[in-house]
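To whoever is on call:

I kicked off a structure prediction for a single chain this morning and the downstream step that reads the tokens threw a length-mismatch warning. I double-checked the sequence; it's 112 residues and nothing unusual in it as far as I can see. Pasting both halves so you can look.
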Amino acid sequence: MHGSQCAEGPDPHAHRAGVLFVPVRPGPVGYCARLLRTPLGVRTAVAFADEPRLTRTLGRQQAWIRLFEPAVRALAAPLGVVDLTVDPLMTAPGSGDLTADRPQRDHRPARG
């Protein structure tokens, strides 16, 4: 099966954004999409058009995976997050925000 198709047919959003680079963090059973906050404090899923943009914004240590836009939205929806910000320039910390400092590690794609 082609990466942009599912049992219901081609994904209507796949052509719009293509494959995105999505920051992730270690979770209890693998990796979880990392949520950030907009400058106004609203939680948002984030993705980047390419690896250099992700690295410039979140640093070389940030792990990432590649997903189509609908998959990113599907990961965030159960958490009540409906916004997806592509190529964010700024984020704002918040209580319990997932952007807290972590120990530095070498940059590389997340492995499942």
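Update from on-call: the warning came from a stale cache, not from the record. Cleared it. Sanity check on the structure: Residues 1-15, 94-107 have pLDDT under 50 and may be disordered.
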